[in-house]
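Notebook p. 47: complex prediction with iron/sulfur cluster.
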Amino acid sequence: MGKTFSEKILGKKAGKPVAPGEIVEIEPDIAMSHDNTAAISSTFYKIGVDKVYDPDKHVVILDHCTPAANEKFAQNHKDIREFVAKQDIKNFYDINEGICHQVMPEKGYVWPGALIVGADSHTTSYGAFGAFSTGIGRSEMAVIMACGKIWLRVPETLKIVCDGEFQPGVTSKDLMLKIAGDIGADGGLYRAIEFCGSGIDRMTLASRFVMTNMAVEIGAKNGYMIPNDEVLDYVKSRINREFEMFESDPDAVFDEVLHYNLADIEPMVAKPHTVDNVASVSTVRGTKIDQVFFGSCTNTRVEDFEVVVSILKGKKVHPNVRMLVFPASREIFLEVLKRGWIADFVEAGAIIMNPGCGPCMGNHEGVPAKGEVTLSTSNRNFKGRMGNKDAEIYLCSPRTAAVSALTGRIEDFREVVDCRL
Amino acid sequence: MKIIGRVWKYGDDVNTDVIFPGKYTYTVTDPQEMAKIALEDLDADFAKKVHKGDIIVGGKNFGCGSSREQAASCLLYAGVGAIIAKSFARIFFRNCINFGLPALTSAEAVANLKHGEQIEIDMEKGKIKTESGVYQFPPLPKEIVGIFDAGGLIPYTQRKLGIEPKEQLNNEDN
Ligand code: SF4
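Predicted complex, structure tokens below:
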């Protein structure tokens, strides 16, 4: 009987064949943490170990509240800088680099067949590169610092086969929202999700990223895709090591298989306050918005900027809308700057912010007021997520966000004359 | 071990942002302060009225969202004795085990429990005694029971590494 990707890679790490449901103790290749590293470090010292087991395994990236919003956040960052210096953690990226999940692949900490854990739920993202990656808690990260190991349950796998081609302007974000609506926020609970099919093979790296990034929003332990040529070229240009790729066997046993035809996918939104409260954008057309958050680790790569700038160029953001723009990383910021797009954004009235998480989890840089509506390209719209429980968040694709920024209402881009494709 | 307390009943998909809002994750670190924030965006009364040993009951996917372990620890600091749900989000479940907070699954108990009723949980026997009857919950996998029995991941790791536990600071976030 064949094995799935997750069974193979966990088996390889555990040094024995494994089956779903089994619990294995493994040593991850890479362990990522961010602004929570100060808290992790204090738990680490509480264990009673003085030196980090393998400092080179750890990657620390400051992104969640950068630059510091107040003295408490500032102290938090300072504690982290001191900790990484003392423990000789060289893979440290200060507040100038961007969102951890983008910086990780950019700096070469992600490769096909890698086993990566992160003290952040969206660590599932790296499955777009053929890695096994999953989120863990702070104490677990402290234990990895102390002894290098963690327990993981071998997951069952949900296979989602995506064939066909999107209608013009429809993207992987719309697809992911559609899937979340269909199977629910717990539809992938405890399971691995393997995305495959001709639609996934053809997908750009940035589009794939959206799907594995959001795999956790439907409860999954990890998301996975077989790397395509673009992924392999990207990875090879950033790392200097050999890697072994794992793929599910043709006769692997899947827990469940779902099929999607990309041609059937419409532009979607997730309405407040859950990711599975989804609707076709046509049903919420006209909803007044106060803020557009073009940010987060989900949808702010060069490809997303290209879409948004093509809509905003030469036009003006609606006077009642604040449009906040956060490139996912310094590298992406530099690229869009070189392409001249930043000027187009500024002329349109958008506000260019520094690469980082911004208001995504409500720390700073654009927290909404009571009763306000934010249209967001991020991955999560829980009540209070952006720092105000009396505000509403709709999730959508960058294209829907851009078109809506111009009119101050949620728009269906298929109906907006100048934006028809 | 027996846990006796009143039920605080909530619905499906209780997420980490309503349990412990993101805006506090790097700034509120004192256990007593964390306890005051517990469930702030879901039920403003909870933290004021919860008693030691009280039991939270939720629907499916309890604890979905962020990896922040304060969502588990703030409930512990608030005095919560156990959580019963139809299902748990995986990182939240791990965090509960790692803090020694019982996270029990029983769809049947969830369906029948009433807000405010007094119940008793027998951890050894895997039973929940309620006004409407006795419900069974599945035991933890044997590999994980050790973590739970040691009182959480940190004491478990200390034991494994042969480290004598220092006085518990009970404050994971400074
Ligand atoms: S951008 Fe948002 S979802 Fe992504 S890592 Fe930052 S806070 Fe988390």
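Notes: Confidence is low (pLDDT under 50) at residues 169-174 of chain B. Chain B has two domains: 2-138, 141-174.
Next step: compare against the earlier run before touching the bench.
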